[in-house]
Amino acid sequence: MKDWIVAPGAPLSGRIRVPGDKSVSHRAIMLASLANGVSRIDGFLEGEDTRATAAVFQRLGVKIESPSAQSRIVHGVGLQGLRGSVDALDCGNAGTGMRLLAGVLAGQAFDSTLVGDASLSKRPMRRVIDPLSKMGARIDSEEGGLPPLRIHGGQALTGIDYTLPVASAQVKSALLLAGLYAEGETIVREPHPTRDYTERMLSAFGWPIEFEPGFARVRGGADGRHALRATDVSVPADFSSAAFFLVAASVIPGSDLLLEAVGMNPRRTGLLQALRLMGADIEELNVRKAGGEAVADLRVRFAPLRGIDVPEGIVPDMIDEFPALFIAAACAEGVTRVRGAAELRVKESDRLATMSAGLRQLGIRVDETPDGADIHPGPLQPAADGSTRIDSHGDHRIAMSFAIAAQRAEAMFVVGDIANVATSFPGFDSLARDVGFGLRDA
Ligand SMILES: O=C(O)C1=C[C@@H](OP(=O)(O)O)[C@@H](O)[C@H](O)C1
Ligand SMILES: C=C(OP(=O)(O)O)C(=O)O
């Protein structure tokens, strides 16, 4: 098992660009594969999750070239051009990959099986199986709606008008992608708006779609009337990866760090609002559009933070950033309260439980609730003899969050089971060291 030894380093400084956005990279591979013609993707995330999605489409008969790192040339086969695979399609660790693929594959003429790693095999798929079944899909799962998913091809799909029971961009996207193969319109309504990359990218690829925050309506393509047109995609740097450095520089005295070209889609930047409410010093510089998405350079300097009640309305806009927020909260003055975040229990790990357990090992009081936690800040005190080992439970965001915590800790400790950092943020360790982190392989 791969572990890190983490310890206080130097104040963070420098200018870095974190890797490409994971959500955009998954969707770019999918839509480019289903388009007519050749699309180029630049800034592609070379993470295990997004590479798994690319490998799935290669297995389905799509030619995908990689002229250089972070670039892909995708030879789209058109909406009806995928070929079935007798082998199971491996989504790795990626909930996004599996749920969106369920939508695409529900509309094919052939059968498919979607599998994932141990973590993904425990994640709930009923949330896509149920509404896709309402559209006419036939999907078998393991007991409890767990992967593997066996998707029966050759089903005629019909559009539905569906209100999501939980705010989930993955479920919304699965339905919109199935909607491309359906008769009639597919409408998705959300209890709270979630990231809209699928909608924006469908529109960029020329598909008829209307959307506004909380609502999307896609025209069905069962009659072959509509097509996706090959389109180049420029992927912004992933806000969720930048988030670790936003928190780290905010809590490490003397830090002054610049993060370049970070994707600033408002459905992703809830952490920025939360950190600012806590008193963080983060400037947005050179705000511009790149590849249809807002991007900015973010300058972050150390600032003393205070605890807050995280507004429930911004929870979906920072859903992947709670592990990092928990570290900011542990380093603040006063209690931070998180509520309305039960979704954290069904990510790569139960993130409320894994963050609470790890922080307690550092001497921090965390009162967990079913949908959140109260984090009582204090000095981060692992065992003085270096024997503390915090288990990330194979969850990339937990591992990176405790690497930040170590920079403020009173002694070194070990972060265990960190290999999955490569799913979303390959090269985190060397980038972190470059800007000042104390971090090495165990
Ligand atoms: O659509 C996406 O790309 C994602 C949606 C979110 O999941 P949910 O849809 O389960 O909220 C998020 O946690 C995940 O990292 C990426
Ligand atoms: C939840 C995440 O991803 P996914 O659902 O794609 O596994 C994440 O990256 O934090």
From TrEMBL:
EC annotation from Swiss-Prot or TrEMBL: 2.5.1.19
- Give the domain of life: Bacteria
| Compartment(s) where it occurs, according to its Swiss-Prot or TrEMBL record | Cytoplasm
MF GO annotations: 3-phosphoshikimate 1-carboxyvinyltransferase activity
Q: Which reaction does it catalyse?
A: 3-phosphoshikimate + phosphoenolpyruvate = 5-O-(1-carboxyvinyl)-3-phosphoshikimate + phosphate
**Chain residues that bind phosphoenolpyruvate:** 22, 95, 123, 170, 351, 397
SUPFAM superfamilies the UniProt entry points to: EPT/RTPC-like
The entry's active site is 320
| Pathway recorded for this protein | Metabolic intermediate biosynthesis; chorismate biosynthesis; chorismate from D-erythrose 4-phosphate and phosphoenolpyruvate: step 6/7
> Where does the chain bind 3-phosphoshikimate?
22-23, 27, 168, 170, 320, 347
As for what it does, the entry says: Catalyzes the transfer of the enolpyruvyl moiety of phosphoenolpyruvate (PEP) to the 5-hydroxyl of shikimate-3-phosphate (S3P) to produce enolpyruvyl shikimate-3-phosphate and inorganic phosphate.
**Similarity remark:** Belongs to the EPSP synthase family.
Record note on quaternary structure:
Monomer.
Q: What is this protein called?
A: 3-phosphoshikimate 1-carboxyvinyltransferase
Q: State the organism of origin.
A: Lysobacter brunescens
Phylogenetic placement of the source organism:
Bacteria, Pseudomonadati, Pseudomonadota, Gammaproteobacteria, Lysobacterales
Gene name, per UniProt, is: aroA
